[in-house]
User: What shape does this take?
Amino acid sequence: MAELFNIMKNPKAGFDAALAALRSGGLAAVPTETVYGLGADATNGSAVSRIFAAKGRPDFNPLIAHVSGVEMARSIAVLNDVSLKLASRFWPGPLTLVVPLKPGATIAPAVTAGLETIALRQPKGIMADLANALGNPIAAPSANSSGRISPTLAKHVMDDLGDKIDVILDGGNCDVGLESTIVKADDDGVALLRKGGIAVETLEMFLGQKLRPGTDKPKVEAPGMLLAHYAPRTPVRLNAPCANEGEVLLAFGPGVDDGPAVRNLSPEGDLHQAAHNLFAMMKELDMCGATRIAVQPIPQQGIGAAINDRLERAAASVERRA
Ligand code: TXA
Ligand code: MG
Assistant: This one.
């Protein structure tokens, strides 16, 4: 079983244990501002292969490498002007940049699934500090079994993967609650590969240009965006005004209170609060033994677009399994 450290009470003990695990080729689950990541030293091939084994993740789906900052990013990859501009504005934060890997970089090939590009992110907080202390990037997908809902609490990680990893750091509830936005800046502009914690509108405003959809090579450009992602066990019904007989309700906005069969993502109608609560509330409703989770409409603006993206995948993946 994984050793669990509460880093809100005792940050040093947890940091040291996670660093020791990473240094010796082990796996450490570490909170970030988005979701919990399942980390390994990105330069250690056997450590990285343990990530794929623990998650049951297909080996064609590359990982995000978490860096301590722009300097570490530039030591292993080529950041063009637009990527640099994005990094300096949004790092540390929930933005992942897909950039060309530098020839000769000592990143384990499994991290990039053999691609010539690598996904890089400087997260807020302890993950970046660990990368700095390790002296290497930390490869870390979300710390959940492949295809399931991402963890926003240490307990989610323990329940799902506790018997397969070495250390779990409990940093409480993840702030943003949704994975990072993934973009790729190249000669054709900036492609959006995954909606996430930074709204498309925010990026477009900053860049002064529209993002283009990154769907030209789905297998390579967004392999993590398969329909089987974010699957609860209970079927999901979207755009439901209210729950029917046998259903539990994932509500949004005023007038609906939490109860045994109801969770409200944000009674105030705040989309950031809804993102923050989304995965934990979906998991709670999934445990109710209901016939279906009815989900009230979420506005398709700002981070609401990323919330709807995850909800649509959750609904579609259950349909596909059925
Ligand atoms: O917020 C996040 O991004 C979290 C935290 C832990 O950082 N991580 C995360 O990792 O969501 P994961 O593995 O669940 O999703 C990584 C996504 C996948 O969709 C993968 O296909 C994509 O990044 N990806 C990784 N490398 C890529 C590359 N070279 N080109 C295109 N997509 C890539
Ligand atoms: Mg994931």
The first strand starts at residue 3 and ends at 6. The first helix runs from residue 11 to 23. Residues 141-142, 150, 224 surround magnesium ion (ligand 2) (CB under 6 Å).
